[in-house]
């Protein structure tokens, strides 16, 4: 770090009423750079605005920046767009597309569809049972 940067940093940190550097850091005036140092002290008696900043820059709110970069949910608009269309894809085609986009892991696979068993109906009616009962057991 150069001496000039150190001096400027100390000028920024010193109290407003006090303008001299501490005696340990003061240079003698008889050095070769005495004229330049005197000019600098005269030219910059108080800290100015930082010239390294962009001219006309506006300080942005962190909350506004967060809202700009936050992910937006487009589900509702996409659903309205999709439902508005008249073309409906074939169910087999949609199943193929879903199968292609599915991963190979077991957690990505949909649960296996179990075919529902229909309750087995009997061929015989109540009358047939009564008739059999009468014939077999001999009851009226």
From TrEMBL:
GO terms for cellular component: nucleolus. It is found in: Nucleus, Nucleolus. Its main location: nucleus. InterPro entries: AROS (IPR023262). Signal peptide: none annotated. One of its GO terms (molecular function) is enzyme binding. Keywords: Nucleus. It comes from the Eukaryota. Residues 13-56, 98-121 are annotated as: Disordered. Belongs to the AROS family. This is Active regulator of SIRT1. It comes from Eudyptes sclateri.
